[in-house]
Amino acid sequence: MTAAKNTQAKKQSGSSIFPFIAIPLCFVASILLYQFVFGNPANFVDNDPTKDPLQGNYSGMIYKGGFVVPILWGLLFTVLVFVLERFITLGKANGSGNVDAFVRSIKGFLDRDDISGAVAACDKQKGSVANVIRAGLAKYGEMEKTSGMETDQKVMAIQKEVEEATTLELPMLEKNLSVLSTIASIATLIGLLGTVLGMIRAFAALANAGAPDSTALATGISEALVNTALGIGTSAIAIIFYNLFTGRIDGMTYRIDEAGYSLTQTFASRKA
Questions:
Q1: Domain count within the chain
Q2: What are the CA-CA distances from residue 145 to residues 149, 150, 151, 154, 156 (Å)?
C-alpha cells in the first residue's frame, strides 16, 4: 500500500493547487469579458458606455448590470471549470469499462477462486473502484498464505485493507465539490445584492423632482434584472451538477462496498 499512498499523495497535491490557479483565472476572464466585450462602445448609443444600450443589444444591457456582473460571471466560469474537472476525474475513477460489469466479473472470479484472474481484471479496468478491489485482492492472497491467524482475524485484515484503500480514493472523488456547493449557496445571494442595488438606483431616478431620469431608471432596472438572472442561473447550474456528482460518488462507494463484502465473504466461506 506504500506505493499506492505515495501515488495518491501526489494526485491530491496537484488537485489541491488547482483551485488556487483556476478560480483567479476565472475572475480575470470575467473582468476582461465585462470590460472589453459587454463594455464595448459599439454596444451603446453614440459609442458611449455611459449612455443607453442600443435597441436589442443584450451585451450592453448586461454591462449596465454594474460591478456585480463580473463577480457573477466569475462564479459562473468557476462552476463550468470545476464541472469539467469533476467530469474528467470521475470518468477516470470509473475506469476503462462499465463498473457494474466489472464488479460482476470480480464476483465470478472469486466464485471460481481465480484470484489472479480478478487481479488481471482490476489491472485492465483501472480507476478508483478497481484500485480498491485490487488492494483487497492483494491482502486476500497474502492471508491465504499466512498461518497462525484465525479465519475471523484474516477476514478482518482483508476488510481493513479495503477500508484503507477506500479512504485513499474517496478524497480524490470528493475533491472540489465544496467549491460547487459554496457557489450554489452564494451566487443567488450575490445576485440578490445586485438586484437590490439596481432597484435603489431605479427608485432614486423616480424620486427626482419633475420628470424622472429615464436613463438612470432604465439602468437601475437593467442592473436588477441582469444580476437576478445571473445569480439564479449560476446557482441552479452548481446545484444540479453538485447533486449529479455526489450521486455518482455514492454509486461508486456502493460498488466498492459490494465488492469488498463479496471478497470477505468468499474468503470466510472457503476457510470455514
A1: 1
A2: 11, 13, 12, 11, 16
